[in-house]
Design goal:
The chain is an alpha/beta fold. The chain folds into two domains: about 5-145, Sandwich (Immunoglobulin-like), CATH 2.60.40; about 180-399, Zn-dependent exopeptidases (Aminopeptidase), CATH 3.40.630.40. Helices cover about 30% and strands about 30% of the residues. It has ten helices and 16 strands. The protein has helices spanning about 5-20, 135-140, 200-215, 235-245, 275-285, 290, 300-310, 315-335, 370-375, 380-399, and strands spanning about 25-35, 35-45, 50-55, 60-65, 70, 85-90, 95-100, 105-115, 120-130, 145, 180-185, 220-225, 250-255, 265-270, 340-345, 360-365. Helix 3 packs across helix 10 (about 380-399). The chain binds zinc ion (ZN). Zinc ion binds near residues 184, 191 and 200.
Length: about 400
């Protein structure tokens, strides 16, 4: 375990300590075998549903279980192993995740649960082997185990199974994509104020509802964090997206700035450090939403948020960045004015949905008279929404 992992583990323990008393403990994780064939054995204090699958960039094996307490001391592992790093944490919704980063591309050969017997505890066994990057890529669409979780973007029904192993059930093929639209602010939090008196909360809701209409017409499923003028805390928006098992999360905003000549849309993704000063300030403004509504944020540990980002989000972040760039290009090609510095990143609380690719779109500056008037016009809003819909099409065509 690297020092960084040890730190993560420390904070994850802290997180677990704060959390509810879960029934399930992970008491031991053993790695055995050598060379290009290895076995992971996870010892539990009870039965748990699970699923196992692989993801790339970085190469890793994911084992999802019921939420668990981490009671593992020193891990047992051979001197030479493909496993470089082990991380874990809570996925929310009663699920926990173990991540085993590997030194090379790997494929899961088999994965099964063994019930407690003969003094041995309940355990989950995952056998894996070295493979090529191309074969691993194919395998990212397969998962093993009996846990159903609709949120994973690459879930599929096909998998490899040996007849000598316990019966396995597989997740059903992915249904229509679910887009979570998050119109910013609402209720007592108006967001930015337009020079024509328009509120950010009103403009972003109108674009959100138009985007929903267009997406549903094209066969997507859509859930909105708010569809009326109500206040929803940032954390609730993230929880909502995860609970619904969204495939994409799009947060809609419009900004304000002291210089009234600044105009154009920009798109943001989550990062632990802001790409520049202005973006850090923007994130601060947007993150203030909860303060405006009088919600006490003092109990929210930023370190906990950091682990959640660290845990499973690296490939989600790549996907988010790809989506952000697609949106910028598509807006540009569809006559939506974009800002000179179009794409930036910072610690936006509302983007911390972890395993869902997420972006925040600032559609323009309400402090510029022409722009706020454009955004107050339904024809222009329809144009913005159709460019967003087109970007979402492009995103799924690639993924
Ligand atoms: Zn906003």
């Amino acid at each position: 375990m690297s020092f960084k992992t040890a730190i993560s583990v420390f904070f994850a323990c802290f997180l677990l300590f704060l959390g509810p008393a879960w029934a399930l403990d992970v008491n031991s994780v053993r790695i055995g075998g050598h060379g290009d064939k290895e076995r992971i054995v996870v010892e539990l204090t009870g039965k748990s549903q699970f699923r196992a699958f692989v993801l790339q960039s970085p190469d890793r094996i994911i084992i999802d279980l019921d939420d668990f307490n981490w009671k593992v001391g020193k891990m047992s592992r051979p001197p030479v192993t493909l496993v470089k790093d082990v991380r874990f944490g809570s996925l929310g919704g009663g699920k926990g995740r173990l991540v085993l980063e590997t030194a090379t591309p790997v494929i899961i050969k088999s994965a099964f649960a063994i019930d407690k017997s003969g003094g041995q505890p309940d355990r989950i066994v995952v056998d894996f082997a070295k493979t090529s990057a191309a074969v691993m890529k194919e395998a990212t669409t397969q998962q093993m185990g009996n846990m159903k979780m609709p949120a994973e973007p690459k879930a599929a029904s096909k998998t490899v199974k040996k007849s000598s192993e316990p019966e396995e059930k597989f997740a059903p093929a992915k249904a229509r994509k679910l887009i979570i639209i998050d119109p910013g602010h609402g209720g007592q939090d108006p967001g930015a104020l337009g020079v024509n008196g328009a509120y950010e909360k009103t403009i972003v809701l109108a674009v959100g509802l138009e985007l929903k209409r267009q997406l549903e017409k094209a066969g997507y499923r859509v859930e909105m964090t708010r569809a009326t003028d109500v206040f929803i805390p940032l954390g609730e928006r993230v929880k909502f997206a995860r609970k619904k098992g969204g495939d994409l999360f799009v947060s809609l905003h419009a900004d304000s700035i002291s210089r009234s000549n600044v105009t154009g849309a920009s798109v943001y993704t989550l990062s632990d450090t802001a790409s520049d000063k202005e973006t850090a300030k923007l994130a601060e403004r947007e993150n203030k939403s909860d303060l405006i509504a009088g919600i006490d944020l003092s109990h929210q540990e930023s370190d906990v948020a950091d682990i959640l980002i660290n845990l499973a989000a690296r490939d989600t972040m790549n996907q988010s960045r790809y989506l952000a760039k697609t949106v910028i290009n598509t807006l540009d090609q569809n006559n939506v004015k974009i800002l000179d510095t179009k794409y930036r990143s910072a610690g936006f609380a509302v983007l911390k949905a972890m395993d869902i690719p997420s972006i925040l779109v600032e559609m323009g500056y309400l402090t510029n008279r022409q722009e706020v008037e454009r955004l107050s016009n339904s024809a222009y809003r329809t144009q913005v929404a159709s460019a967003l819909k087109l970007s979402i099409d492009k995103f799924f065509q690639r993924n």
